[in-house]
User: What shape does this take?
Amino acid sequence: MDSSVIRLIVTLTWLHSLHAAFTNVALNKAATQTDTHIGGDASLAVDGSSFQASSYADTGCTRTVSEDAFWEVDLGDLYVINQVQILNRLVARLQDVEIYSSRERNAYTLANYQSGVAGDSVTFTQDIFARWIKVTRRTPIAALSLCEVLVFGFLPHDAESFRRLSSHEPTGSPLTVINSLTSLMKCAAHCDRQMAPRCRSAQYNTSTKTCSLYQWFDNNLSTSANSVMLIREYGVRFLT
Assistant: This one.
């Protein structure tokens, strides 16, 4: 590669927040479900109660009418998440549970899955960066009922600083190419402002003064001695 090319990577991993306290960021957030059996509102899974019903006659847990159902919560912002815990009913337990996550509305991807019948609770440990969390079942049997869904995470700090590390390369086609930029930090600033789709890496060419913005990056080590990482303050966790 031309030695005049400097690569900048803006990642979605976390440096200063490695020791941040993870709290239940789903508490009292807006929750919805496919449909609702009388008294089994979706909000009951994010009300902070640890009550686990021992029969369908007990209130305090969500319940749908349909079997092929889902439950979801809007966290209201993009959170760093490392665990989702579901408190189960003590009867009519969940089985074949699927957890989906999404950064944009209705753009879900499967985050985790547990086969078989769940116990009193089921815990999924998974590094996720998301706003929406959805719970469903791979093999629907009876109505979907959840007593509580806890999503442990934190909101990355708004005051972002950057530091450089060597390695990694942008991948895919550029989101856009910006001409006549006089510095790589101006290129980084354009990447920082590019939100939809989110810019995570940028390539600055010092000869042509062009800045190419990319949505993704390759986490294989770069072979170029001129490759430079520009990482957000909340940067390093997902690189490993």
In short: The longest helix spans residues 184-193. The domain at 5-17+159-239 is CATH 3.50.4 (Hepatocyte Growth Factor). The chain has a mean pLDDT of 77.
